[in-house]
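Here is a tokenized protein:
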Amino acid sequence: MMTEFTVSLFGHRRIDDLRALDAQLIPIIRELLRTKPFVDFLIGRNGEFDEYAASLIKHVQKEHENESSSLTLVLPYKVAGIEFYEKYYDGIYIDENASRAHPKAAIKKKNRRMIERSDLVIVYAKEKGGAYAAMRYAEKLKKPILRLT
């Protein structure tokens, strides 16, 4: 039976330095793909970090030319244009519990569920905001965290 290693990624809406982010995140993705039997990367779609990190994961997946990982888009509710996302991501998960919450609370609930499912949490966060709150929740649950700067 294949052991799945789940990684959640959270990041600030804006990226300050793309090269610095590449230099930190690409080696982490490569190492995970090299050392784990199967990696499921969980990511949202709420800003520059999410979109950019997803593209880096796709790039490294192609580089490795294997089926040992998946990139799963996690949404708090159904969104318009989901057909585009179905073509880009390996899977889409809509958090039914979060979808019943007020839209502002839904993202926080979705983030918490992602963290609860994760073996590792990767965070690119400033000292406030949703990514920072996600990191604090991961700390509370004593999840391993890699904080990108």
Remarks:
- The mean pLDDT is 93.
- Residues 9-148 form a domain with the Rossmann fold fold (CATH 3.40.50.450).
